[in-house]
Amino acid sequence: MSKPKRPNKAKSIIAQPLFRSRQEQPAKGKGSYRR
């Protein structure tokens, strides 16, 4: 939605465990930009 240039790549990074630890926090602002 932000950059239709590499949506697959962005999803791959978010699907990684790196982002998972960040998702643990309440989706207020940092997790809001993800969706």
Automatic annotation (TrEMBL):
Residues 1-35 are annotated as: Disordered. It comes from the Bacteria. This is Lipoyl synthase. It comes from Pseudomonas coronafaciens pv. striafaciens. One of its GO terms (biological process) is rescue of stalled ribosome.
